Hints:
This protein has 11 helices and 11 strands. The radius of gyration is 20 Å and the shape is globular. The protein folds into 2 domains: 11-204, inorganic pyrophosphatase (n-terminal core) (Alpha-Beta Complex), CATH 3.90.1640.10; 208-328, Diaminopimelate Epimerase, Chain A, domain 1 (Roll), CATH 3.10.310.30. The strands form 2 sheets. The chain has a 6-stranded parallel beta sheet with strand order 3-2-1-4-5-6. A 5-stranded mixed beta sheet has the order 7-8-9-11-10. The chain has 333 residues and is of the alpha/beta class. The structure holds manganese (II) ion. Manganese (II) ion (MN) binds at residues 40, 95, 119, 138-139, 169.
Amino acid sequence: MSNPNAxxxxxxxKLQAIAAKLKSWSGPIFVAAHEDPDGDAIGSVLGCxxxxxxxxxDARAVATSPRYLEWLPKIGELLAPFExxxxxxxxxxxxxxxxxxxxxxxxxxAGIPIINIDHHGSNPRFGExxxxxxxxxxxxxxxxxxxNALGVGWxxxxxxxxxxxxxxxxxxxxxxxxxxxxxxxxxxxxxxxxNITEINEYLAVNPRSYYKLQAEVLSTIDYPLEGLLVTAYVxxxxxxxVGATWExxxxxxxxxxxxxxxxxxxxxxxxxxxxxxSLRSRGQASAQNIAIACGGGGHVAAAGATLMLxxxxxxxxxxxxxxxxxxxxGLLK
Length: 333
Ligand SMILES: [Mn+2]
């Protein structure tokens, strides 16, 4: 997930402007992230909201935790979605590549300023202040810089969600976005009390249904485009059969992407009228290019898209765009 884009040249300036704006804000600050939140989304939300609360600010964390992260928020800490915000509210959107992907708060309510902190290169830089740094492996790394800019004293409650975000977005320091900077950042969080062994133990647990679902999904494995693409398929009926949820599908892409000789991996999620694609790539091929061509976005090595097409047409579109990408990098003629 390394990205050639340079860091926002005004990175430090913007970080300080955001810290100043947050510190001087007298109304409630709603911290929210993208739909279907992952460890980086929940970790970034909690890292921000806990820091702001520690400064005496009125911060509200708005998110719904997936089951595998339920150990991270305290009971009642994550608030249910808001349809309307008070007039003196501010929104802090984290890890969300697009304004409409931020969930739990009304992103188009007139008069509510939005601060956008993110690391997706495709982010259109929405909001009053947009701090978008595609070379950061996790949004949580920007949050870590923000906590320092705010001058909040680090403690285990702030360090734990931030380290969780780094761990999940780097695949436990295995993805190509794992740099020396990432390891240094993680070491700093461990120094202030984050327990990496404990976090990894929590993250490693799968529901029992997960293994049965894995059998279902892996039975659909296919290797089209001269074996350079690996695909797997999942629909509602398969989930129902084993008593699993869509959430349990999320991590399966990580296992199929390791199929020998493949450059691109895709899990195709069939929702009937629409089809969601989870994409990964290695080497020269870009999952992001395919996702963008399908109306989605993300990072070079990990991206996603929703095609408003039933599965058969969606699969054709995927094959067409994957073929183009593999041709672009010279792997197909
Ligand atoms: Mn992220």
